[in-house]
Please model this.
Amino acid sequence: MISVEPTAAQSSTLDLQLREESERIGAEAHALVARLFPYCRSLTGDGVRETLQALRTVIPLEVHEVPTGTRAYDWVVPNEWNVRDAYVLDSCGQRVIDFRAHTLHVVGNSAQIDRRTSREELLAHVFTDPAHPDWIPYRHLYYRDGWGFCMRHRDLGQLDEPDYRVVIDSTLQKGSLTYGELVVRGTQSGMFLVSTHTCHPSLCNDNLSGIATTALIAREWIRHPRRHGARFVFAPATLGPLVWLSRNEPILPQIRAGIVVANVGDQGGPTYYRSRQDTAPVDRTIAHVFRHAASGNASIRPFAPVGYDQRQYCSPGFNLPIGCLQRTPNGEYPQYHSSGDNLDFVTAAALGDSWRLLSLALHVLDADATFINLFPKGEPRLGPHGLHAIAESLGLFWILNLSDGNHSLLDIAERSGLPFWRLLEGARRLEEAGLLQRQSGAGVPQKDRF
Ligand code: ZN
Model:
């Protein structure tokens, strides 16, 4: 039997490096979520601009403004909404509902109003969630006219006066839709897309967790340039990706893989929704990463045109190989779309873990390659190359056997049951020994990162 004692090669694998880094990155992601929390984001408006501006302290994001009226397939960029203040005053002049206390108190996209209303009229415009009386629900009026407030159900009884003054100091007028994009060039053709939505106000898991995690992944991509390029898109849900797609059709064939990131800060296990292609490299890679590197209960779900922006990227006219990474999916945790989705609900550990899994998946996608065994007649003798002791742990016999030009390292990883990153180290050692030659793909990455 060959020894399977851990070796220096094993302990230097990428998986372990990322585990070590994830604690620090998780704390940084949580701090970033806290910093972005107060901004009143929406489909359009200054809250999104302020968010993207704050992200520019982390990554050199390019901010794009797309004017009201611009068409994107069947959609049109609407008027821009901005809100400065919103409140309901009782007869003593006290704010009984106050936007300054929480951005969720005003219904998103509410029209400007300043007048007295009867209690009955006010209540017809107030939303609460009786099932969770301590949380303010999140509501918006996109593509509709109207106004409204949200409040804790337990506070509803305090609205016992016959009439109130209602003020929403907002504007809904020609402006633009704002999205951010970071383009990082690679050294070879092909690129990855990481996309996250930016349109929710003070809500942490949905969507600040995705924004923070994507930004910190992008920063790593800049610090450690890869073979493939990458585009990181921060855009309001649905309309943002449609605008981005409509402006980027010529480059879409270059997209090798993509991931939509959302709800990645709660303590549930990681969940992945497959792309519409079902078995694209990104789908196989995430399944592989979950199998070998996820802590806790990880789950893979089939593609469905629900949830986030993979709906647009995977619409039949594009059918891009793009899946969606979450922890607990949208709508499956009670705090979803309420003030319960706050800074306590998302944890540094979960954010760091999501960053690690996403980072590992992108590394696998970037590094996958096909090799040729230069000594295919029988197994070459590994002892003279000093490889005998590490042959089993790094899957050298698997690599040599299946490197016939028809199997990539990911294929070999799936078939052998060994983690990709160990085979990658094995391929590097075999290539150094002159037993293996790269045929196609990214090749063996630089040793300093692995
Ligand atoms: Zn949402």
In short: The mean pLDDT is 94. The pocket of zinc ion is lined by residues 200, 206, 330, 337 (CB under 6 Å).
